Amino acid sequence: MSNLAKWFLMMVLVALVSGSLMVACGGGGDDDDDDDSADDDADDDDSSDDDDDDDDDTEAKVVYYGEDGIQKVIYDKCIRCHTEDGVAPFGLEGYDNAEKYALDMANETAKRAMPPENVDNSGDCGHYDEANLWLTDEEMQKFQDFAQGRGAEGNPLDSLDIPPPLEGLPEEDRNLVIQPSEPYHPDASQATDDYDDYHCWLVDPKLDKEMYVTAYEAVSDNESIVHHTVVIPITTTKVQLYLSYLQDVVYKDQTGWPCSGTEMGGEGLASFLSLSGPGGGASYFPEGTGQLIKPGQKIAYQIHYHLEPKDPNDSAKHWSDNIEPDQSPVYYKLEESVEKPAQMLVFRNTDLYLPPGKENIDETADIVLDQDYEIWGIAPHMHELGTTYQLDLVRSGEDKADETQCLARVVNWDFDWQGLSTYKEAIQAKKGDTLRLSCRYSTMSRDTTTYWGEGSKDEMCIAWIYMVALGEGGV
Fold first, then answer.
1. Cα dihedral sign for 198, 201, 207, 210?
2. Which domains does the chain have, with CATH numbers?
3. Between vectors from CA 267 to CA 266 and to CA 273, what angle results, nearest 5°?
4. Strand 330-335 and strand 176-178: pairing?
5. How far apart are CA 161 and CA 145, in angstroms?
6. Tell me: the pLDDT tens digits for 335-372?
7. Which residues pair with 293 in a beta bridge?
8. How many CA atoms lie within 13 A of 283 on its CB side?
9. How far apart are CA 245 and CA 230, in angstroms?
10. 241-280, pLDDT tens digit by residue?
11. What pLDDT score was predicted for residue 198?
12. By the 8 A CB rule, do 335 and 211 touch?
């Protein structure tokens, strides 16, 4: 039996269209060596008198508290997941936690492993909205300076308030709910590794007419384990029958089914309605746009449960036995019409040949557009061998022939952090322009050749693009 949908992972975090829809949270675990070193430093500091401590804070480039301290960056970019009760393996509320994990934060941010933001928002390739979690060079340096300053505290009177949860979708706008048919008890025995349980359901929205999704909010029953949710509209009868067979026949004695691959019956992964991590609040498609749902169209709903125990001496299975069943919903705002009907179109390079033992293998594909489009957002996708990614728009007009505009760039691909990043302003693409999709892989960990495929051990090179067609026809 083939595995199903190991999909995007986030936090991201986070927003699909009024923001970067990002699956967020997790990772960046505590480094024992770093903690030992930090503890030794703390012991050394204890031998100093208070005046010495004050001098250390005065001389430190970055202290914890205040608008100019590391507290501001943590609260802006990290605290949504890194709370004591959140899905991340440790909390970052307060000075004591920041001091304890100073070296971990410095190490993870230097690698851009944290925060969970794949897409480069430096300004060199696209200009994304404020929900993008990309760290500026200045913010990255603050983590380094804070660690090198041995976690200098600063003045507690300058402390900032923990930001409130992001605003949710108003009750009156919750026109549709997608959720498991019954509560599901996450189970580490179903995990694809020690910690991750992916579970899917086929849901009937029961619409009696065409409607457009213009906003949504994913709500976690248990934010300590819900890593992200993905909602996929089924586009073909073949896929719908396949998933119905899984749910109603193969796994009829349970709610939903385990879906630990990235397979959705082939062309079924042509789009998605939403992808969200914990704490993302309400997400809005660009003003005037929305995605169509048709009567009779079924929805595949996936929840990724991350079952990493807070206590490193505990086992994932034992810890998951003690959690409550989950039935996390996603709420949608529906409208009968929109000014600009949009689609989440998929562009892919399926001609992948990746021999083993190679540090860098580059694969590139060109796709010519057959009409004009407004491009509003990009969701890159590769699997575990991916290292870097770039999507360019190559202009074709006489006045701009061969002019290249970078649409999306990933400098340090992380399979666990994927999502849709939306632009501050739409990018105009013309008929005849070319989308150039470039994916780089490392196969040093493999001893056999890897090809295109939907299993997590296969590979992909994909751009999901949220776009509005401005002429007849399609890509």
1. positive
2. 32-158 (no CATH), 168-335 (2.60.120.310), 344-469 (2.60.120.230)
3. 120
4. antiparallel
5. 23
6. 999 999 999 888 999 999 999 999 999 999 999 998 99
7. 211
8. 35
9. 20
10. 989 999 999 999 999 998 865 555 444 456 788 877 666 7
11. 84
12. yes
At residue 265, the pLDDT reads 46
* Contact of 61 with 106, CB cutoff 8 Å: no
d(CA 73, CA 88): 17
- Amino acid sitting at position 162: I
**Three-class SS string for the chain?**
CCCCECCCCCCCCCCCCCCCEECCCCCCCCCHHHHHHHHHHHHHHHCCCHHHHHHHHHHCCCCCCCCCCHHHHHHHHCCCCCCCCCCCCCCCCHHHHHHHCHHHHHHHHHCCCCCCCCECCCCCCCCECCCCCCCCHHHHHHHHHHHHCCCCCCCHHHCCCCCCCCCCCCHHHCCEEECCCCCECCCHHHCCCCCEEEEEEEECCCCCCCEEEEEEEECCCCCCCEEEEEEEECCCHHHHHHHHHHHHHHCCCCCCEECCECCCCCHHHCCCCEEECCCCCCEECCCCEEEEECCCCCEEEEEEEECCCCCCCCCHHHHHHCCCCECCCEEEEEECCCCEEEEEEEEECCCCEECCCCCCEEEEEEEECCCCEEEEEEEEECCCCEEEEEEEEECCCHHHCCCEEEEEEECCCCCCCCEEEEEEEEEEECCCCEEEEEEEECCCCCCCCEEECCCCCCECCEEEEEEEECCCCCC
Distances 432 to 172, 377, 428, 472 between C-alpha atoms, Å? 43, 20, 12, 14
Q: Which two tokens stand for residue 343?
A: 């689609």
What distance in Å separates the CA atoms of residue 394 and residue 339, rounded to the nearest whole number? 28
- The Cα–Cα gap between 90 and 224 comes to 10
User: In which residue are the tokens 């507690």 written?
Assistant: 156
Residue with tokens 């022939």: 401
Give the contacts of 352 (CB within 8 A, at least 6 positions apart): 363, 450, 451, 452, 459, 460, 461
Which of these, 284, 288, 378, lies nearest to 340 by C-alpha position? 288
What's the Cα-to-Cα distance from 234 to each of 119, 122, 269, 460, rounded to whole Å?
27, 35, 8, 20
CB 356 within 8 A of CB 448: yes
